[in-house]
């Protein structure tokens, strides 16, 4: 009896896998599979296609809906669903819109130019200059040099050249010697 238990469990999983079927969603024009197309049914089942355009759908439903941005959504009744589903590109959308305007009196454009040229900060932001800032570099060098030079008293700042680990070890050893002497 215990030998048949794993076999029965395996049959349950196989039956669950058989309750779904795989479809492929592709672009009708280029015949390439569509990635990330949303597929759902009226039975509240939803899935997304993988990079090969594959997804799983249940065996029983009434209507299948497939959609992807840039493509026309497709509603397919159950009896018409095949192994592959084409999607047609949505040609009603605009890729790019360029708008040109012209003011006959050109007063608006002149005012905008005067605002830009009157405000030096705005002008500097719109027209950055590139190159070396010699005065800025010199100021940085002077600042660094003043930190390294001796202070007002003529003495250089004291620098601890001893290793802190060795220093703490020696102090600990001296304390231990002092305790042992007592």
Range of helix content: 25-40%
From the spread of the alpha carbons, the general shape counts as: flat
Q: What percentage of amino acids are in beta strands?
A: 15-25%
The sequence of SSEs as H and E is HEEEEEEEHHHH
By CATH, the topology of the domain at 18-89 is Immunoglobulin-like
- CATH homologous superfamily annotation of the domain at 18-89: Carboxypeptidase-like, regulatory domain
Compute the number of strand runs.
Answer: 7
In CATH, the architecture of the domain at 18-89 is: Sandwich
CATH class call of the domain at 18-89: Mainly Beta
Q: Major sheet, described briefly?
A: 4 strands, antiparallel
Radius of gyration: 39 Å
- Return the structural class: alpha+beta
Oligomeric state as shown: single chain
Low-confidence stretches are: none
Total number of helices: 5
User: How far is the N terminus from the C terminus?
Assistant: 82 Å
- Enumerate the strands of the largest sheet in spatial order, edge to edge or round the barrel: 3-2-5-6
Integer average pLDDT: 80
Task: Note down, in words, how this protein is organized.
With 182 residues, this protein is of the alpha+beta class. Among the domains are: 18-89, Carboxypeptidase-like, regulatory domain (Immunoglobulin-like), CATH 2.60.40; 103-147, no CATH class. Helices cover 37% and strands 18% of the residues. The protein has five helices and seven strands. It has helices at 4-18, 107-118, 120-126, 134-148, 164-181; strands at residues 20-27, 38-41, 46-48, 54-58, 63-67, 74-77, 84-87. The chain has a four-stranded antiparallel beta sheet with strand order 3-2-5-6, with no helix packed on it. It has a three-stranded mixed beta sheet with strand order 4-1-7. It is flat and about 95 Å long. It starts with a helix and ends with a helix.
């Amino acid at each position: 009896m215990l030998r048949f238990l794993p076999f029965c469990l395996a049959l349950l999983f196989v039956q669950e896998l058989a309750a779904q079927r795989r479809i492929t969603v592709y672009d009708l024009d280029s015949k390439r599979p569509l990635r990330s197309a949303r597929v759902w049914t009226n039975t509240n089942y939803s899935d997304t296609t993988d990079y090969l355009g594959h997804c799983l759908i249940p065996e029983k439903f009434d209507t299948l809906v497939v959609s992807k941005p840039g493509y026309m959504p497709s509603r397919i009744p159950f009896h018409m669903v095949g192994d592959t589903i084409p999607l047609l590109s949505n040609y009603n959308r605009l890729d790019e819109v360029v708008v040109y305007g012209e003011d006959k009196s050109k007063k608006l454009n002149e005012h905008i130019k005067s605002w830009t040229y009157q405000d030096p900060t705005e002008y500097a932001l719109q027209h950055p200059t590139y190159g070396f800032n010699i005065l800025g570099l010199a100021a940085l060098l002077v600042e660094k040099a003043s930190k390294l030079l001796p202070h007002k008293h003529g003495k250089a700042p004291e620098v601890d050249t001893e290793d802190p680990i060795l220093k703490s070890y020696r102090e600990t050893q001296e304390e231990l010697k002092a305790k042992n002497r007592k």
